Amino acid sequence: SVIDSSSNAQPLYSKVTNPTLSPSHLQDLPGFTRSMYRSDHALITPESHVFSPLPDWSNTLGAYLVSPAMGAHFVMYIAKMQEGSKSGLPPKHIERFVFVVQGLVTLTNVSGICQTLMTRLLIYLLTQSISSKVMNLLHLLYLKEGMLTWKIIFPSQLLAPLINSHFLTPPERQIMDFQPGEFLNVKEVHYNQHGLLLLEGQGIYRLGDSWYPVEAGDAIWMAPFVPQWYAALGKVRTRYLLYKDVNRNPL
Amino acid sequence: SVIDSSSNAQPLYSKVTNPTLSPSHLQDLPGFTRSMYRSDHALITPESHVFSPLPDWSNTLGAYLVSPAMGAHFVMYIAKMQEGSKSGLPPKHIERFVFVVQGLVTLTNVSGICQTLMTRLLIYLLTQSISSKVMNLLHLLYLKEGMLTWKIIFPSQLLAPLINSHFLTPPERQIMDFQPGEFLNVKEVHYNQHGLLLLEGQGIYRLGDSWYPVEAGDAIWMAPFVPQWYAALGKVRTRYLLYKDVNRNPL
Amino acid sequence: SVIDSSSNAQPLYSKVTNPTLSPSHLQDLPGFTRSMYRSDHALITPESHVFSPLPDWSNTLGAYLVSPAMGAHFVMYIAKMQEGSKSGLPPKHIERFVFVVQGLVTLTNVSGICQTLMTRLLIYLLTQSISSKVMNLLHLLYLKEGMLTWKIIFPSQLLAPLINSHFLTPPERQIMDFQPGEFLNVKEVHYNQHGLLLLEGQGIYRLGDSWYPVEAGDAIWMAPFVPQWYAALGKVRTRYLLYKDVNRNPL
Amino acid sequence: SVIDSSSNAQPLYSKVTNPTLSPSHLQDLPGFTRSMYRSDHALITPESHVFSPLPDWSNTLGAYLVSPAMGAHFVMYIAKMQEGSKSGLPPKHIERFVFVVQGLVTLTNVSGICQTLMTRLLIYLLTQSISSKVMNLLHLLYLKEGMLTWKIIFPSQLLAPLINSHFLTPPERQIMDFQPGEFLNVKEVHYNQHGLLLLEGQGIYRLGDSWYPVEAGDAIWMAPFVPQWYAALGKVRTRYLLYKDVNRNPL
Amino acid sequence: SVIDSSSNAQPLYSKVTNPTLSPSHLQDLPGFTRSMYRSDHALITPESHVFSPLPDWSNTLGAYLVSPAMGAHFVMYIAKMQEGSKSGLPPKHIERFVFVVQGLVTLTNVSGICQTLMTRLLIYLLTQSISSKVMNLLHLLYLKEGMLTWKIIFPSQLLAPLINSHFLTPPERQIMDFQPGEFLNVKEVHYNQHGLLLLEGQGIYRLGDSWYPVEAGDAIWMAPFVPQWYAALGKVRTRYLLYKDVNRNPL
Amino acid sequence: SVIDSSSNAQPLYSKVTNPTLSPSHLQDLPGFTRSMYRSDHALITPESHVFSPLPDWSNTLGAYLVSPAMGAHFVMYIAKMQEGSKSGLPPKHIERFVFVVQGLVTLTNVSGICQTLMTRLLIYLLTQSISSKVMNLLHLLYLKEGMLTWKIIFPSQLLAPLINSHFLTPPERQIMDFQPGEFLNVKEVHYNQHGLLLLEGQGIYRLGDSWYPVEAGDAIWMAPFVPQWYAALGKVRTRYLLYKDVNRNPL
Amino acid sequence: SVIDSSSNAQPLYSKVTNPTLSPSHLQDLPGFTRSMYRSDHALITPESHVFSPLPDWSNTLGAYLVSPAMGAHFVMYIAKMQEGSKSGLPPKHIERFVFVVQGLVTLTNVSGICQTLMTRLLIYLLTQSISSKVMNLLHLLYLKEGMLTWKIIFPSQLLAPLINSHFLTPPERQIMDFQPGEFLNVKEVHYNQHGLLLLEGQGIYRLGDSWYPVEAGDAIWMAPFVPQWYAALGKVRTRYLLYKDVNRNPL
Amino acid sequence: SVIDSSSNAQPLYSKVTNPTLSPSHLQDLPGFTRSMYRSDHALITPESHVFSPLPDWSNTLGAYLVSPAMGAHFVMYIAKMQEGSKSGLPPKHIERFVFVVQGLVTLTNVSGICQTLMTRLLIYLLTQSISSKVMNLLHLLYLKEGMLTWKIIFPSQLLAPLINSHFLTPPERQIMDFQPGEFLNVKEVHYNQHGLLLLEGQGIYRLGDSWYPVEAGDAIWMAPFVPQWYAALGKVRTRYLLYKDVNRNPL
Ligand SMILES: [Mn+2]
Ligand SMILES: [Mn+2]
Ligand SMILES: [Mn+2]
Ligand SMILES: [Mn+2]
Ligand SMILES: [Mn+2]
Ligand SMILES: [Mn+2]
Ligand SMILES: [Mn+2]
Ligand SMILES: [Mn+2]
Fold first, then answer.
1. Most-buried pick from A220, C200, F245, H17 (CB within 10 A)?
2. Does the beta-carbon distance from F183 to B232 stay under 8 Å?
3. Strand partners of residue B194
4. Which residues surround ligand 6, an ion (CB under 5 A)?
5. Which stretches in chain B have pLDDT values below 50?
6. Is D31 left (phi over 0), alpha (psi -120 to 50) or beta?
7. Would you identify the CATH topology of the domain E50-165?
């Protein structure tokens, strides 16, 4: 089954939930943070996460990483659920995408039909609620109404092939992989925004004039037109989750 | 009574009304100010306060410290009342919070019921007007309609226990205390805004890439997502008044 | 009469129309300008003025110095009229203020009543048109509808006392004078915006972290909350024209 | 005919389509780009172009260079068409201007009337669609509804005289030419925005405090009030295409 | 006598010994200082003075403000003497200049001849020692051997006329006075170094690209070629003591 | 005995040898370092230490932290000895000071007399060599000839009282202790240089315009005249080892 | 004769002696200067010249523009002579080069032989003194002993051909000419130093990261290895005088 | 033989002699250079090389990349020889190292014994002269007397094994190789200087706070204590030549 296929003890994205440079490693450096917020981009690193109860969710702590208050047209956040936690529903006409960083969640749609999601599943949710059987770390994107011009087919058809491969071919929500030494061919400048969560590996992200060493667990917001480029370094693959708004008239 | 309990001659927050580094100490330094306004935060220090008559108030001088013109969704200001001064009412659907920095004020609600407030009282006002018996220094926050999702119970129930303790448990309007050497555990990055008035003590506030020495009497505005951190220094407790907008969907 | 009183040959504000550091003095410095535009203020110096025909005016060249495109809620511009030039009317519900820097203009209101204005007159215009008998240099402010809460009495009553004194006591549009060595007592931080035209003298303007040498003919825009301070230098009085939006609730 | 007149083998604006400093010359410089995005201007150089299918167009790749997401009120982009490519129509009430950088396109209006455009033609399109006979590189501007106060006469009258001269006298969309050593007389500061594509030559563009070497193929966005200045250098003429919004009340 | 002439109770340069912005005024601002040290200049303000016993002096505390360790070819320091304090002698071939900021000192030359100095006396010392009858604050300059090409005649001849006037006509050690609004005509760039102590008044010092508000009690070091300019502000005269090395071949 | 008194298992300065933010915690952040080198100061953090064999020492790895190549007049380094390691002798006329961060060393003077040193001992060495019985981490200062004007009495007399107290009263080589919240009273500007090793605790070091979070294990170099200030934070004492050159004529 | 050949009334390098942007044009801009001094270059513009009597010269005022105090190994200065002025001799083993910017001087060598120099003559002087018949403006370079490896033949042979051409072929002291639009092919980085005086024309000088508009009368110092580049602009030729130390081993 | 072993037509380090981003690619970008010179490091890229005849060499052009004038204690330069070119000898007590980037040279020692060197040979030269049979590009280091504490055995013994391996084991002159994605483990801070020539590949060099994309042909100087780090990117190996001064007492 879908669930059984990840029977190895080592969590898939363990450096997101337990980063090499954890907040406790910085406990003796008063005032130090790698987090940076500029008008055209932000780097949000684990020691800056502020968790508080999510409104309309039960028994869940969440940390908002990106929101319209910084100039984005979407919300990106991390939700920590426990056994018995239950999500609220997305506001009307708002699309919600879920990536299960760690653990298992059950989706229940308005007809009461349930489906279990596990780590590595990126899923589109319009009216479903989420409940949790085990401790979970979710990565969520909320999109403003009307910003997307296409729809993902209901996830049941997609679940199987997603387990062992890149699963969402539409470029709007990409899983990007880089081998060590590999980098973006284009030093991109475009009108699209990005929300990014680094799942595996490490490298250098250039954003505007700034160069940031990044590692798994770091999140990035890129405003429209910020020059951007990534190079993967070290001995393991880099994988990141990338939101990009496309297929719309920029006017 | 509530009023009598502060019979000591020394005003509670005397460094707010009479800062160690008063404007007169800077009178020989033409053009010098510690005030700073950047796109994601502001430090407003006493030598920059511009007092002028408050519209709709009688016999009151006010200095606006924060307003939507700088990107905030609230107004924070200081009002200097004298005996016989009387406030205007807040605009309709606008919530007003009052903190009496020094002196005594009388609240009168629409039914004509009065209540006396003294230093250290943080109070929620929807339709009450304020009049003053003695010279007062008030710290006020105006909040835009609809931004808060809960209500404080009418202050009469709250007055007594507020005198000698932290009194407003909801995190939205906090009194934060730090012992010397204590600092914020998290180098916070969040979508919420802050309005802050330093009531006692001194320390270092990091806002984005800037580090500011601050002391009682200084005010701060923090835009969403500015990295922020405080450390208390010296030999006395730091206490500050903190506005934070919470409990709402950031989308 | 009002007009006769300025019978001296030397124009009143000759350094505005003929600055000590004229554009021709900079003709051999390719790319050099003292003009500066930052997010919270702008300095606009004569070599950067771009004159083009004013829409709806006849035979008039204008240079816009401040506009909402830079974050202001008003328009400030200089209009060069010649004999026979005629203004357009302000858009409906828009207030217009005129300061005659040099020359003579005739006001005609909707009833056809005319009135002659000369240098040094700051005047409120709602529906009047302006025509010119001699070459004029006007300094104009356009204010968005509803931003002012008071009205100036029709200028006929004001003309006489205005000639030899500061004439507009309301603080919203001030004539500010400084003797050499004099400076602003407060290093101001406030929610109000400013539009400024330096009519006489020279000094140093501090805006945020920047210090600017300024002289007659320079114009400045100050966004809300930019720390600001001026000191007059040299051997003559500094006089500047200052727009400030006051008397309104900043919420 | 119009088409025959450019029978020389060398394309007119070959450095736009094949810049001296092509993306491949930078392939060994990881993370290097000359592109720059600041709050008041942007330089977009060829190695930063991101081409993807244009929505509503058939068989066409486009790269957006300027859009409202960066603060502009227009869209500027480059479209690569092939034989048989066909454009979508502009959104209703949106004006579209086309400059054929290389190749041939056919315009078809709603009545089915066709007209062929070739390199060097800047044309106004309200309801026409474009189809391509040969490989084309188009430079397009989309303008928001209502921003222009005048109309260009239908292009059929303009085509003939446009071939060998500067063809659009209204200043809103200018072809600007500079001989080597020539520079802008005024260091301009104005409320108007610009979109610029450098067609021939090279020089220095000063934007705010920054000085940029530029060459054919570079594109620039200038926000309102950014101080701006250009000097042409080298041995050949500089020619650039310039959008400027004029003839409207800046309030 | 020389001494009696300053019988007014108010010390002459009281703001040097008791500055408006004293260290105690800054005691609640942890880490704040106006002092600045750059490669081409330094501003040393009172809260940064570090006093320790002066080697070879008895019962005297001194604070070095300028030394060769920062690139200067002289030493400038402040010495606090008490009754009975006695200086060491200058090293051989080193010239020493003394300005008595406050109090009285007695000079004794090698022949045992004594002379009393009081506030406002700038004096050249080669082999004399200084002893103190009352609490003194001295400002001293040590000059490296061979750097001066002229000699001051023994002070006995100079004492009388020095009391009420500028007393040292050679430009090497100047007393500079400015009336409010007055400023340096030349924005100087020269190979000479300066050591400066502000005795009275306040103003703005521009050093390189930096603008510093300064007041009595502040000291400045200027390296060769730093662009420099001063403007006096406020209601009282500015007076400063200025060391400048002149009359030598700069090769 | 002196040695026995530290019988607790926990090493005294364990955060120097095993810092909270060890190099391995930064292994996934390519290119990241907290180290900073400016013309007037340097922060050298553990992930930047380059260890290589020390010339003239046997079986010892050393990392130079400060040297004259950066403008200092001393050398500061860390030496890792093992059982059987043996130091070279200091160059002639060079003074050497040793602080045993961890472990035990034996001093042997030219007469063959030995003495055992343990953690916390700061010792003056002119001609002694050092050998090691166990793994050691030494902190050494080399001073150029003639820079010190006093001598420490041979360590045998000093050993006993050093164990439980601050042991070197001369200010030249200080152990500085701060309780949490405590800070330097003076924002120091002086001609003296410093070499500093943070042994315990954490806080903020201001150097010039920069503010650095620091923790045990960090080293600092301060050039003459860099403004400097420290505040201790957290729950434990800060202790640092400080070299300062005093008691000499700065000319 | 040599002298007669410049009989036109218009001085050759009149913009050096009377710059378009003269100090008097900046008299109303307190504190403003275009002069800039950085560690690797300096721009010295006319409003910053400080003239004082030249030691060992009679009746001459000089302004030093470059000296070893800024890191150069030469001195560059301007000397204003009058009728009857007489120079001192260069120090022994020091070479002196003279360029007559305006007027006439007479050279007298040790044998008493005289020779008249006029504008445009660059001349090598080892032991000659200079006397002046008419008001002169000289540009002089002093070179430290031993830095040059070749010698110029005594000027008498060179005078004639120098009048109407570039006269000093050795690259060490060059006259550089640029036509409008022309620029340096190489963005030079080299170990050699430069002293430069702009005699005619205007353009842009890039020095390190800085871009400077320059015009006739401006002087520049370039330290070793500062990246450097010039482009001539406007309608007239640029000519500058350039000192460069070559032909020596840089070790 | 040594020479025959490189019989492949493709030169070994062709990107040094013919860089991907050649000066001609930048010919249309007036004033643009990637070269940077700061106080603690320099990047020297091909478009900034200034070639001129090398003193004491015949028929050779050289470009100095590093010299003591920038703070180094060595000289690094590139020499272009042609058939028949002949070097001068190094100054007495100066050591010279040669790396043949391209072509063949013959060494002749004082006894007249010759030896042929080819590309990839790094060789120590004390008294040998170099002559060239074919066009050569040499990379040379000159070291000041006494800076090295060891000697390389005469090259004849070393030639054979050098051809296909890293050949100089002493760390002082290293060949460093990195596979794509590989980076320096330590973010180094040390007292040693570096001279570096990138022979193959590309990556990112961090120097102090700056991040530089670099490619084959770029040269770097690193002053003592500049924090430094390299990461190799792309698909091919990075190889660079690195000078480092070690094995000496840093005092
Ligand atoms: Mn992208
Ligand atoms: Mn917070
Ligand atoms: Mn104001
Ligand atoms: Mn323009
Ligand atoms: Mn001076
Ligand atoms: Mn200190
Ligand atoms: Mn050069
Ligand atoms: Mn290294």
1. A220
2. no
3. B222, B244
4. F 188
5. 1-9, 145-172
6. left
7. Jelly Rolls (2.60.120)
pLDDT digits (tens, 9 = 90+) for H6-15: 444 456 788 9
Query: Do D50 and A225 count as a contact with CB atoms less than 8 A apart?
Result: no
What ipTM describes this predicted complex? 0.91
Place of tokens 């387990």: A163
Q: Is the pLDDT of residue H199 over 60?
A: yes
Ligand 4 centroid to G183 CA: how many Å?
25
Give which of D24, D35, D39, D140 to mutate to test A binding, by max A Cβ within 10 Å. Answer: D35
Does residue F6 surpass a pLDDT of 60? no
List residues of E whose CB lies inside 8 A of any F CB: 23, 26-27, 30-33, 35-37, 39, 42, 44, 47-50, 52, 55-56, 63-64, 67-70, 75, 91, 94, 142, 144
Six token digits for residue H101: 């980037």
Q: What residue spans in chain D does CATH classification 2.60.120.10 cover?
A: 20-49+171-251, 50-162
Chain centroid, CA A204 distance in Å = 19
F196 C-alpha to center of ligand 6: Å?
A: 10
Tell which residue, D198, H45, H65, D233, has the closest CA to residue G230.
Answer: D233
Do D228 and D191 contact (CB within 8 A), yes or no?
no
Check whether domain B50-162 has CATH 2.60.120.10, yes or no: yes
Q: Give the homologous superfamily in CATH for domain D20-49+171-251.
A: Jelly Rolls (2.60.120.10)
Q: Where are the beta strands (DSSP E) in chain D?
A: 36-38, 41-44, 52-53, 61-66, 74-81, 95-102, 104-108, 114-118, 122-125, 129-132, 136-143, 173-178, 194-200, 202-207, 210-215, 219-222, 228-233, 238-244
What's the token pair of residue C179?
A: 């003797």
Q: What is the CATH number of domain C50-166?
A: 2.60.120.10
A19: which 2 tokens?
Answer: 């980063």
Residue with tokens 């907008």: B245
Residue contact C26–G30, C-beta within 8 A: no
Tens of pLDDT, residue by residue over G26-74, are: 989 999 999 999 999 999 999 999 998 888 888 899 999 999 999 998 8
Which ligand sits nearest to residue C230's alpha carbon? 3
**Which of A13, A18, A29, A214 is the best substitution to test chain F (most F C-beta atoms within 10 A)?**
A29
pLDDT: is B81 or G249 the higher one?
Answer: B81
Please judge whether F183 and B233 are an interchain contact, meaning their C-beta atoms are less than 8 angstroms apart.
Answer: yes
Q: Is pLDDT larger for residue H136 or for residue H113? A: H136
G214 contacts on C by Cβ (under 8 Å):
29
How far away, in angstroms, is A247 Cα from ligand 1 center? 14
For H15-48+171-251, CATH gives: 2.60.120.10
Q: Where in chain H is the domain with CATH 2.60.120.10?
A: 15-48+171-251, 50-165
Task: Report the residue count for chain A.
Answer: 251
Every domain range in chain C assigned CATH 2.60.120.10: 15-48+171-251, 50-166
State whether C142 and D251 contact (CB < 8 Å): yes
What dihedral angle (degrees, nearest 10) is formed by the CA atoms of C118, C121, C122, C126?
-50
CB E26 within 8 A of CB B21: yes
Which has the minimum average pLDDT: C177-191, D91-105, H73-87, H216-230?
Answer: D91-105
Cβ neighbours of F226 in E, within 8 Å: 37
E218-234, pLDDT tens digit by residue?
Answer: 999 999 999 999 999 99
Fold type of domain E14-48+171-251: Jelly Rolls (2.60.120)
Place of tokens 């790094």: H122
Instruction: Give C183's contacts (C-beta < 8 A, 6+ positions apart).
Output: B30, B31, C229, C230, C231, C232, E233, E234
Kindly give the distance from the C-alpha atom of residue F95 to the centroid of ligand 8, in angstroms, as a whole number: 28
DSSP for A157-220? Answer: GTHHHHTTS----STTEEEEEE-TT-B-SS-B--S--EEEEEEE-EEEEEETTEEEEEETT-EE
